[in-house]
Design brief:
alpha/beta; about 350 residues; TIM Barrel; binds FE2/S2 (inorganic) cluster; about 45% helix; single chain; 6-stranded parallel sheet; 3-stranded parallel sheet; binds 5'-deoxyadenosine
């Protein structure tokens, strides 16, 4: 069995491709030895493409209002216990100012799908950030919009867009979301974003309720097809005030394994070692870097609002992981043998 898995890992390393069934076999039969072997190859590839650099993105969680009702998410509209907040333009610019002085050259504006932030307001904010910090990249993560809206943000200067596909399987998607949301529309958004010219990020939760190994294989096939610049994954983590309050969280072990597979599938990708990984284990993000990740996204939001952006229980948000404790982050990253760089950290050119 193990020999077989090694052969599959070698094939993925050499060709960047596996059949869906092969991913299923590899994921289902994985063991610790396979994982270590996989990570040795995923590190090799990340170093071939990006050296020892770790890129940092300043994350600004600017609104936790959301019109959607995803079953897994703590800021879903039906969660009456969520204390809602919005940052205004000046607050956001203050975050950027602080972030710039800390060495961040990418700002990620992330929020729930909040109709208060009209396209006009978003474009104003993007234009302002780009005029004040022309050497910085602006990344948006504000959900599903029309193609026209995406185009307007792009024209205002947005460079990148993060929208996880969450799961590539329509049926599984419908178990995680109410019927007004569909996997097809989500994929439509991702292809629109790509066509417009964004560097696009997608991704999925590992260990989300009802997820099968076949679903994970479908996620791998989907990212191979989409060829995004960025892929963010993290374990599903239970939130007590959601319909999934009694569903178990995903594991560190499977998340790291999937991360390694993503690096082998898309060697050029920018892959964050996510907050969810850091939440599920104290050294989760360091392990993510050692499994092939090359980005971290420290929190730049004002301290007062951080606890309110609770997508899942116990999300780390006040200590060392934050942008302000840049020295802690540097120490953590250098403990893995990698180093934080002050750079926009664009995706390397992809030829095919
Ligand atoms: N556990 C882990 N990740 C979550 N997200 C939302 N809710 C949870 C949760 N309970 C992730 C989704 C979303 C991203 C912003 O956060 O994948 O796309
Ligand atoms: Fe806000 Fe899912 S609950 S987009």
């Amino acid at each position: 069995m193990q020999r077989n898995n090694r052969t599959l890992i070698d094939k993925l390393f050499e060709t960047g491709e596996l059949e869906k069934d092969e991913y299923v076999t590899l994921i289902s039969n994985r063991n610790e030895d396979d994982a270590q072997y996989l990570f040795s190859l995923s590190r090799k590839l990340r170093e071939q493409y990006y050296g020892k650099s770790v890129y940092v993105r300043g994350l600004i969680e600017f609104t936790n209002y959301c019109k959607n009702d995803c079953y897994y998410c703590g800021i879903r509209r039906s969660n009456k216990n969520a204390v809602r907040y919005r940052l205004d333009e000046d607050d956001i610019l203050a975050c950027c100012k602080e972030g710039y002085s800390l060495g961040f050259r990418t700002f990620v504006l992330q929020g729930g799908e909040d109709p208060y932030f009209t396209d006009e307001k978003m474009c104003r904010i993007i234009l302002k950030i780009k005029s004040l910090y022309p050497d910085c990249a602006v990344t948006l993560s504000i959900g599903e919009k029309s193609r026209e809206s995406y185009q307007a943000y792009f024209d205002a200067g947005a460079d990148r867009y993060l929208l996880r596909h969450e799961t590539a399987d329509c049926e599984h998607y419908s178990k995680l979301h109410p019927s007004e949301l569909s996997s097809d529309n989500r994929k439509r958004c991702l292809y629109d974003l790509k066509e417009i010219g964004y560097q696009v990020g997608t991704g999925f939760m590992v260990g989300s309720p009802y997820q099968t190994e076949e679903n994970l294989a479908q996620d791998m096939m989907f990212i191979k097809e989409l060829r995004p610049s960025m892929v963010g994954i993290g374990p599903f983590i239970t939130h007590k005030d959601t319909p999934f309050y009694d569903k178990p969280s995903g594991t560190l072990e499977l998340t790291l394994f999937m991360l390694g597979l993503i690096r082998l599938t898309l060697p050029y990708a920018l892959i964050p070692s996510t907050t969810a990984l850091g939440t599920i284990a104290p050294n989760g993000r360091e392990l993510g870097l050692k499994a092939g990740a090359n980005v971290i996204m420290p929190n730049l939001s004002p301290v007062e609002v951080r606890k309110k952006y609770m997508l899942y229980d116990n999300k780390i948000c006040t200590g060392e992981e934050s942008a302000q404790c840049v020295q802690c982050l540097k120490n953590r990253v250098s403990s893995t043998g990698y180093e934080i760089v002050t750079d926009r950290g664009d995706v390397v050119k992809i030829n095919n």
